[in-house]
Amino acid sequence: MKIVALAGGIGGARFLRGLRAAAPEAEITVVGNTGDDISLFGLRVCPDLDTVMYTLGGGINEEQGWGRVDETFVVKEELGAYGVGPTWFGLGDRDFATHIVRTQMLEAGYKLSAVTEALCDRWKPGVRLIPMTDDQVETHVVIEDEQGRRAVHFQEWWVRLRASVPALSIAAVGAEESTPAPGVIKAVEDADFVLFPPSNPVVSIGTILAVPGIRDAIAAKTIVGVSPIIGGAPVRGMADACLTAIGVETSARAVAELYGPGLLDGWLVDDADADVRVPGVDVRPRPLLMSDADTTSAIAQAAIDLALELRSAEES
Amino acid sequence: MKIVALAGGIGGARFLRGLRAAAPEAEITVVGNTGDDISLFGLRVCPDLDTVMYTLGGGINEEQGWGRVDETFVVKEELGAYGVGPTWFGLGDRDFATHIVRTQMLEAGYKLSAVTEALCDRWKPGVRLIPMTDDQVETHVVIEDEQGRRAVHFQEWWVRLRASVPALSIAAVGAEESTPAPGVIKAVEDADFVLFPPSNPVVSIGTILAVPGIRDAIAAKTIVGVSPIIGGAPVRGMADACLTAIGVETSARAVAELYGPGLLDGWLVDDADADVRVPGVDVRPRPLLMSDADTTSAIAQAAIDLALELRSAEES
User: How many Å is the Cα radius of gyration of chain B?
Assistant: First the structure.
């Protein structure tokens, strides 16, 4: 069985861990969001790719969902002593090493996809992790505060401001000119089906879909998504702030419709959203809280089952 | 009183601490060696500048003489887990922050002299520390081992090989085309005298003197040096291996002669070398072991006294 999953950070990574457990023999290709990537201290940081890599590789800080377990913050403290910021982005010492290796390889001329593969040589995530693109795509958020109306990097809005200032709009800058990273389209073409984990529909899945070629390639496949919204609220994170920014209601139905007609075939919603109906989409309610490894794996299994069911229905 | 001192790493830094204590009111400009600088993990490392900065700024690891006190090595350990080396250069987490700040500033277009000034804003070394040049000068060592005859970076010979393979020659690559960093020549011109701390005469003082313009500028001044050789052996480090490489005997006399006629005016040697005579140089024996702060300060005071004595003799 060959599966392609698009993924953002924490929610996506946890779902993928369940997916790997549910289908240990499957060949899983993860197309990771890079719109959140940011250069800090001259180093290239890829928060979503790293969260997937650390989570599946056993190095994640389980409580916070991102960053490394047993992390220390000596470098950050020292940078602070030099008066060098930003201080709002919590890079730990172990994490710094990842960014140092990545930056050194990028400066040597390797593409992000090759760098990610090299980093995964250590982490052995059990999936093939490919960035959505080797080109620079950066999610910017237009906000308006006492400094006036201005565009800030997604991380500044998300991490520094904790999305407390309303986003007027969100744009994946550079997406239109980007091309999928090597292997992405081939993996989709070879896949039995495509899954959308409960990642942020705007700044994770939405950004990946904004890379020309990816949406068309996956549209030809059976696609099953897992709703990141339960009973009108995000399972985690601040997806509601992103949805509001683009004028979409925070509901399992609205997210399915956001992905657009002809894309989703199946949609797993929580039992709390059992009444959701989406034209042309097979909506199935079940418990969606990824509270532990077993329940997460069961959710992934339900997504696989629905995808296989819809796929064989399409074929017959 | 205005003093210029040329300096390498550990020996120079310790002497400078004594100098600052002996002449707290003096305006001290330190011209630092950058021939040992190396790029590691994509970061620019300046071992001698940092040793001076950390030593005078109270951040040095006193026992080893280089690196930071209370240092941790998480980043290095993680880089090792990625299989990324070299592992023979011991960069600690606190030290990494310095190199991250430096590299970021260099990449932003600042010159090394401006970067060094910015780093010193934090360390407040009590001296003005200027790199000998903003240009890239790199000390290379020609060695011959089972891999044949080849040139290696000074640090590879010094740190990785611990100078265990004889050096056939030593060259400051790029020195001929380099120019003194802004402020170096002016500081020398304004100085009452120039001091050579007991730094390595070949790869520290010698490299600084190889920057065109510096030797000529200081030659017009009263210069007093402190011998790094006591009784035919280096006080610390492996200066003998460097001297042998350039065909110079390891003795207090030979080092004074190496600096060339017309450069040194005074030469402090250890009591063990009381019989040393150097034509045209006023040689004064005294205890030269920098065993603690007080003895180091007394050595610096002796150098100041000799410089002032020789200067007033020249003037009269």
Answer: 19
Question: What number of C-beta contacts closer than 8 Å exist between A and B?
Answer: 79
Q: Which of B139, B57, B131 is nearest to B94 (CA)?
A: B57
In a domain, B214, yes or no: yes
A chain contacts of residue B39, beta-carbon cutoff 8 Å: none
B9: helix, coil or strand?
Answer: coil
Q: Nearest-CA neighbor of A293 among A21, A1, A5, A3?
A: A21
Tell me how far apart the alpha carbons of residues B287 and B280 are, in angstroms, rounded to a whole number.
Answer: 22
**Most A CBs within 10 Å, among B96, B98, B117, B121, to test the A interface:** B96
Number of structural domains chain A divides into: 1
ipTM score assigned to the predicted complex? 0.92
Question: Whose structure tokens read 């008066």?
Answer: A83
Dump pLDDT digits (tens) for B228-267: 999 988 887 788 999 999 999 999 999 999 998 789 999 9
Sign of CA dihedral A39, A43, A49, A50: negative
Distance CA A75, CA B98 (A): 9
Domain that holds residue A223: 2-134+179-228+261-315
CB distance B106 to B44 below 8 Å: yes
Q: Do B41 and A104 touch (CB under 8 A)?
A: yes
What's the CATH number where A199 sits? 3.40.50
Distance, in angstroms, between B246 CA and closest chain A CA?
36
Is residue B65 domain-resident? no
Q: How big is chain A by its Cα radius of gyration, in Å?
A: 19
Q: Do A82 and B101 touch (CB under 8 A)?
A: yes
* A192 within a domain of the structure (yes/no): yes
Helices and strands (H, E) in chain B, number of each type: 12, 14
pLDDT in tens, A40-76: 999 999 999 999 999 999 999 999 999 999 999 999 9
**In sequence order, which residues have a C-beta less than 8 Å from that of residue B69 and are 6 or more positions away?**
B59, B60, B61, B62
In a domain, B224, yes or no: yes
Q: Nearest C-alpha of chain A: how many angstroms from B54?
A: 13
